[in-house]
Structure formats: C-alpha cells, structure tokens
Design a protein that fits this description.
Layout lengths: L5 H4 L8 H15 L8 H17 L2 H15 L10 H16 L8 H11 L2 H10 L2 H12 L7 H12 L6 H41 L2
C-alpha cells in the first residue's frame, strides 16, 4: 500500500509544476542535508524522503503513475465513519495513544496526517457541532493537537484550520490551537534560518576581529 504523500514531503500542492517542485526539492535538500545537520538524527531520514519524493515527482511518467495510485488507491481505502460525537472522541483518543507510545523517529508522518484528517472529516466535525458538548469537543481538539508534534508546519496549519471549525470549545482550547500553531511556526523559522544566521554571525565576528587588529 502507498502511504507516502510526496507532495506533502516536498511541501508543494498537487497542481505544482516541475519547476516549482524542483525549487522546493533543492531548498529542502539543502536544509536537511545530513552534512549540515550532524546534531539532528531526524534530518537523515527527512533527506531520504525528500530525495525519494523528487525522484518520483521530478519524472513525468513516474509522477503520473504514483499520482493515480495514491489518490485512487490510498485515499479510497476503507475508513471507519463515526455515528456519534462520542465515536469521534474515542477515535481521537485511540489516535493519541497510538502515536504517543511510538518512537518519534519511526513515525510515518504521512500516515499520521492522513489519520488525523480522517478523524476530522466533515461528517465528524458536523457531529461535534450538532452535539455541542463543549467538554467532549475540547477533548477531541486536545487529543489531535498532541498528535501533531511531528507534523510539518504546513500540515499543522491545515489541521489547525479543521480544529478551529469545531465548536463550541473551552476558551483555553482555542488558545491551545493558536499556541501550537505559533510554536510550530517558530520551529519552522528556526530550522529554515538557523544556518544562514550562524554564517552571518560568524562573518560579523570575523569582520570585527579583522577590524580590531
């Protein structure tokens, strides 16, 4: 079974052209290259996924074949649809328990994202809204938020938008969604700019040392 979403790995939309995909690949490959992330064991795995995604999406025939398999085989697999708000809550609890007990470096991010989206499908969100149990709704949001810690910033943005459509919830739950999104954004910015920042600082220090001689 296909479980990897190569578009999500390269952080591009399914409608992206080859040039856009190539640009995304080069930027991500540079950011996660193992030589530049010796202190980050997750980088090597991420780099391999990025390379794998490019090898498929960068080839027209491979991309067409994968696209058909992924969207017509993977997304049409049987899923369990909840019939009550409590069913949705129980699904969110099982999801949280499943991923909280796993090795974070072995978690398939694409599978995790797909399962989160399944729990938060339109029918389930409607059930939560119609039932209107503020405590149950808040618990669902909390369970999902705690399951997003390994997702990319782009994925967390999408999940947060779904969570914000669940009403009513407690005020602190609304704040937790915003805090999660803010923390993920800060992490994304840090990972993206830490190397350029380090180079800039090193350059400034060298310049100061040369001028002080």
């Amino acid at each position: 079974m296909i479980t990897k979403d190569y578009y999500r790995i390269l952080e591009v939309k399914p409608t992206a052209g080859t040039d856009e995909i190539r640009k995304a690949y080069r930027a991500l490959a540079l950011r996660f290259h193992p030589d530049k992330n010796a202190d980050n064991p997750f980088a090597a795995t991420r780099f391999r996924e990025i390379k794998e995604a490019w090898e498929v999406l960068g080839d027209k025939k491979k991309r067409e074949a994968w696209h058909y398999q992924y969207y017509n085989a993977y997304h049409k697999t049987n899923t369990i649809t909840a019939i009550s708000a409590d069913d949705v809550l129980q699904q969110s609890i099982r999801l949280f328990k499943k991923y909280s007990s796993q090795d974070p470096f072995r978690i398939n991010q694409d599978m995790l994202y797909a399962q989160i989206v399944q729990v938060l499908n339109p029918r389930h969100i409607t059930l939560l809204q119609q039932t209107g149990d503020v405590h149950a709704n808040s618990a669902v949001v909390s369970n999902i938020l705690q399951s997003t810690y390994l997702l990319s910033y782009t994925a967390v943005q999408e999940v947060s938008a779904l969570l914000q459509s669940i009403t009513p919830v407690m005020p602190e739950t609304e704040a937790a969604i915003q805090n999660c999104l803010s923390e993920k954004k800060n992490q994304w910015l840090w990972n993206r700019y830490k190397i350029p920042a380090a180079i800039l600082i090193a350059g400034i220090l060298i310049a100061v040392m040369l001028l002080s001689k």
